[in-house]
């Protein structure tokens, strides 16, 4: 099984940006979201990111930056290399990779 | 969303539409890629649809609810058409395909594999058109209902984005939280389907029924890893193109387990296909990853392209060429027939509490017909919305903050660090192993014992401190609290039903018994962890 190295941006608004590094074996074809969910189960349950439909690319919640490019974590495939994950830069940060993406009129003010 | 729209149409001045995720994106509806059953074709009548629905339900459908599904459902499908959902056309009418168990081509759809997204989008647009009477708020997880003197007066919720606890007062509350597929390791729906509605209803004192009937979809995608598509996407392929279901030795096998030869058509019902695949794998004749092969290699490339257009390219991006490659499929938790007991106005046993959609039990009995779920969600939503408006017009008792105190205390609790994500994974494994489509007394007893262990490990307080933004550890803890209660309900009912019927198959009681042609209602006694059967 190949290994990927994920550099994941951690922390909330106002905290100094840091990237935690996780090494992870994966089955070819698995998605970045597969890896993040596995990390929460096996390594760090506090890691924050958004998702709902897991695989179907229907909810559009799992958007984040992979090496600076916007991707859906559930359709971006893992690769055997260093991969950097950051929250969307133009949205308000909640924590780690999770940002406020709901339309403004669907938020609690 | 249909409930909210209808409530305002019937005069409700203020409707709050809450979702734990994004509005209209978090559930099963947006994921449904296939077809919707409704008697809207020439010569069809909702009574024909009802006859098929009752037959599939193996004697356990509530005939009045099933009739509403078929009759009101057809009206909703036509209304959705006026709302420009985009049902595919053929000639002057709708394009309709025939799904197993239906007596004719009755299922409308939106090409290509876009039914659910189109339904969600059309409803969202209508909700917005209705205007300010509907206030939409996403990222609100309802954790408990508020009950005053036996009447539901509102809810307590967690605002996930901020970690803040909320109380909500309401003259009428509608549970429309969908199903429970997340209880299983392999499931087809979103991560939000923890069965919350069933748990909310039980804790408030309402009655559930048919909890033993979890529908497994026989040909959920298994391998190779496929991303960007929902795992039950092979069903529409089978509707349009037939396809061949083969064992590890590339032989057809459905006939061996009581099915009829398919001859390149799609005729085997869901429960039989699940049975045949499971048995073939048990007999050592499964595909490499423990399922069956599905083959369309006999279908010409041009036919594939005409039927599924851009989907063929998405498959190619996943390295799959159907003219060359077979895929592996196996049963996957997909839908829940059981749920909250309601009357024909979608009223639960508790005044002030209504239910709609998949969360309702009884309309589909022991086995749901393909295409009935979206119809059910639309029809029951519309009925519940009208009833909620009527109740709201009658007014509500004053909301008592004291009645919300216990539920708020839970959200304010600060517990020891733990890994609820790992506990959820354990629950999913045990449910898949011992409470899947095929059950035994021994397996169910083992599941009950393991659920008790998980409950002890979960404890009574969510981990960490409250008030953290997007705190998934606390969210998983709250979800697991509900999932454990719902899992108990499934295990209690499955243990009690000592026969095999529809989606509930007991290997130790393989026959269907006339004595069991009845529903099993469940309730939770105050302070108890495990629901009980009620007569
Ligand atoms: C992949 C897939 C394909 C399907 N295909 C078809 C098909 O082709 N035809 C068909 O008829 N049926 C199909 N079904 C079944 C059908 O989609 C569902 O039964 C139906 O959409 C359920 O609708 P609903 O409104 O009851 O619930 P959902 O659409 O699931 O919505 C429930 C909502 O409640 C929210 N929620 C849950 N808990 C809480 C809480 N505690 N607090 C706040 N919000 C909460 C969720 O976030 C979600 O948005 C399919 C299902 C799946 C998973
Ligand atoms: S998880 Fe739904 S789109 Fe990625």
Tell me the domain tally of chain A: 1
Main sheet makeup of chain B? 4 strands, antiparallel
The gross shape of chain A turns out to be: globular
Low-pLDDT segments of chain B? none
Order of helices and strands of chain A: EEHEEEEE
CATH architecture of the largest domain in chain B: 3-Layer(bba) Sandwich
Bound molecules: flavin-adenine dinucleotide, FE2/S2 (inorganic) cluster
Oligomeric state, counting identical vs distinct chains: heterodimer
Query: How much helical structure, as a percent, in the residues of chain A?
Result: 10-25%
Structural class of chain A: mainly beta
Tell me what you see in this structure.
- The complex is a heterodimer of chains A (109) and B (535).
- Chain A has 109 residues and is mainly beta.
- Chain A has one domain: Ubiquitin-like (UB roll) (Roll), CATH 3.10.20.30.
- Chain A has one helix at 32-42; strands at residues 3-10, 18-25, 63-66, 69-72, 82-86, 93-95, 98-99.
- In chain A, the strands form two sheets. Chain A has a five-stranded mixed β-sheet, with helices on one face.
- In chain A, a hairpin with a 2-residue loop joins strand 3 (63-66) and strand 4 (69-72).
- A four-stranded antiparallel β-sheet of chain B has the order 16-11-20-21, with helices on one face. In chain B, strands 12-15-14-13 form a four-stranded antiparallel β-sheet, with helices on one face. In chain B, strands 7-8-9 form a three-stranded antiparallel β-sheet.
- In chain B, 36% of the residues lie in helices and 16% in strands.
- Chain B starts with a helix and ends with a strand.
- In chain B, a hairpin with a 4-residue loop joins strand 8 and strand 9 (164-169).
- Chain B folds into three domains: 2-212 and 337-405, 3-Layer(bba) Sandwich (FAD/NAD(P)-binding domain), CATH 3.50.50; 221-332, Succinate dehydrogenase/fumarate reductase flavoprotein, catalytic domain (Flavocytochrome C3, Chain A, domain 1, Alpha-Beta Complex); 413-522, Methane Monooxygenase Hydroxylase, Chain G, domain 1, CATH 1.20.58.
- By secondary structure, chain B is an alpha+beta fold.
- Chain B is globular and about 65 Å long.
- Chain A binds chain B through residues 12, 27-31, 37, 40-42, 45-61, 72, 74-75, 77, 94-96, 98, 100-102, 105-108, and chain B through 21-23, 25-26, 30-31, 33, 116-117, 136-140, 159, 161-162, 166, 190-192, 224-231, 318-319, 418-422, 424-425, 464, 468-473, 476.
- Bound molecules: flavin-adenine dinucleotide and FE2/S2 (inorganic) cluster (FES).
- FE2/S2 (inorganic) cluster (FES) is lined by residues 33, 51-54, 57-62, 72, 74 of chain A.
């Amino acid at each position: 099984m190949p290994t990927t190295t994920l550099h994941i941006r951690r922390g909330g608004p106002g905290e100094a940006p840091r990237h935690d590094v996780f090494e992870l074996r994966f089955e070819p074809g698995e998605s970045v979201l597969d890896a993040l969910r596995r990390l929460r189960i096996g390594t760090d349950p506090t890691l924050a990111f958004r998702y709902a439909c897991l695989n179907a690319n229907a909810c559009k919640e799992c958007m984040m930056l992979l090496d600076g490019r916007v991707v859906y974590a559930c359709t971006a495939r893992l690769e055997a290399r260093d991969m950097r994950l950051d929250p969307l830069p133009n949205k308000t940060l909640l924590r780690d990779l999770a940002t406020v993406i709901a339309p403004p009129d669907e938020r609690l003010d | 969303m249909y409930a909210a729209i209808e409530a305002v149409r019937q005069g409700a001045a203020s409707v709050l539409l809450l979702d734990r995720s994004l509005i209209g994106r978090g559930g099963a509806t947006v994921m449904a890629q296939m077809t919707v059953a409704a008697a809207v074709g020439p010569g069809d009548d909702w009574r024909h649809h009802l006859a098929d629905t009752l037959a599939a339900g193996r004697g356990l459908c509530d005939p009045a609810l099933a009739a509403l599904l078929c009759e009101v459902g057809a009206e909703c499908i036509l209304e959705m058409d006026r709302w420009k959902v985009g049902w595919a056309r053929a000639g002057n009418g709708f394009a309709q395909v025939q799904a197993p168990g239906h007596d004719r081509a009755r299922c409308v759809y939106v090409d290509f594999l876009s039914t659910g997204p189109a339904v969600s989008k059309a409803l969202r647009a209508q909700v917005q058109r209705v205007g300010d009477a509907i206030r939409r708020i996403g990222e609100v997880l309802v954790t408990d209902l508020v009950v005053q003197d036996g009447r539901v007066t509102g809810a307590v919720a967690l605002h996930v984005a901020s970690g803040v606890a909320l109380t909500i007062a309401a003259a009428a509350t509608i549970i429309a939280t969908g199903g429970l597929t997340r209880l299983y390791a392999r499931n087809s729906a979103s991560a939000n389907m923890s069965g919350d509605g069933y748990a909310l209803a039980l804790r408030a004192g309402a009655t559930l029924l048919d909890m033993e009937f979890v529908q497994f979809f026989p040909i959920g995608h298994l391998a190779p890893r496929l991303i960007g598509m929902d795992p039950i996407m092979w069903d529409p392929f089978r509707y349009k193109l037939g396809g061949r279901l083969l064992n590890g030795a590339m032989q057809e096998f459905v006939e061996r387990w009581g099915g009829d030869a398919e001859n390149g058509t799609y005729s085997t019902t869901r429960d039989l296909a699940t049975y045949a695949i499971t048995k073939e794998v048990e007999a050592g004749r499964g595909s490499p990853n423990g399922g069956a092969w599905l083959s369309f290699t006999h279908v010409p490339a041009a036919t594939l392209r005409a039927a599924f257009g851009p989907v063929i390219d998405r498959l190619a991006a996943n390295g799959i060429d159907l003219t060359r490659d077979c895929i592996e499929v196996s049963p996957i938790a997909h839908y829940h027939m059981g749920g909250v007991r309601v009357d024909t106005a979608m009223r639960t046993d508790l005044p002030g509490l209504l239910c709609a959609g998949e969360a309702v039990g009884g309309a589909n009995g022991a086995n749901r017909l393909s295409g009935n779920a979206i119809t059910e969600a639309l029809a029951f939503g519309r009925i519940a919305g009208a009833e909620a408006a009527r109740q709201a017009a009658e007014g509500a008792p004053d909301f008592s903050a004291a009645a919300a105190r216990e539920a708020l205390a839970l959200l304010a609790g600060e517990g020891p660090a733990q890994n609820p994500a790992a506990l959820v994974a354990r629950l999913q494994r045990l449910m898949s192993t011992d409470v899947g489509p095929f059950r035994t007394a021994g397996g169910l007893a083992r599941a009950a014992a393991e659920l008790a262990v998980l409950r002890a490990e979960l404890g009574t307080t969510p981990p960490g401190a409250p008030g953290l933004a997007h705190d998934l550890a606390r969210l998983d803890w709250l979800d697991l609290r509900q999932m454990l209660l719902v899992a108990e309900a499934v295990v209690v009912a499955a243990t009690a039903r000592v026969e095999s019927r529809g989606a509930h198959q007991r290997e130790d009681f393989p026959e269907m018994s006339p004595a069991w042609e009845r529903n099993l209602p469940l309730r939770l006694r105050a302070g108890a962890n495990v629901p009980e059967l009620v007569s």
